Amino acid sequence: MLFTSLSPIIAATAFLLFALYISFKGEAKIKGAWIFPTVLSLLFFVFSLETIVTEGLLGFWTEHTRNLWGNQIWFDLLLLASIGWFFVVPQAKSLGMRLLLWLVLIAGTGSIGFLAMVARFLYLREKAGKLL
């Protein structure tokens, strides 16, 4: 099985396990929670660089404009980013984060920027003594 066929299955499995873990673990305090999105952001950045080198800088746009499925995936990503932004902004604002800079990073890099923002947000919360 090719990497491009196997990796979506691995990612979906990891997502489900993570979602179930978070759903059932309760409201325990999580020290160092910012490390997880930091590592994910860095790993996805490296993977994205390899993708850009292999497939080209604007390959994502070709995929999103190719057919209705491509459109659907694009809309889905934008909706999900908008929902995440809606929930993170009020707390990020209260921690003094510069929202416009983060928005530009997210608009340019998608999940890489959003994961980095969440990592920074969690770090600032922990530093301020407001653990999850």
Provide mean pLDDT, rounded.
91
How many strands, what sense, and barrel or not for the largest sheet? none
Head-to-tail CA distance between termini: 39 Å
What coarse outline follows from CA principal-axis ratios?
Answer: globular
Helix fraction bin: over 70%
Strand portion: under 5%
The low-pLDDT segments are none
| Secondary structure category | mainly alpha
Radius of gyration: 16 Å
Structural overview:
It is a single chain. Helices cover 80% and strands 0% of the residues. By secondary structure, the protein is mostly helical. The longest helix is centred in the middle third of the chain and has 27 residues, at 68-94. The mean pLDDT is 91.
How would you sum up this structure in a few lines?
With 132 residues, this protein is an all-alpha fold. It contains 6 helices and no strands. The N and C termini lie far apart (39 Å).
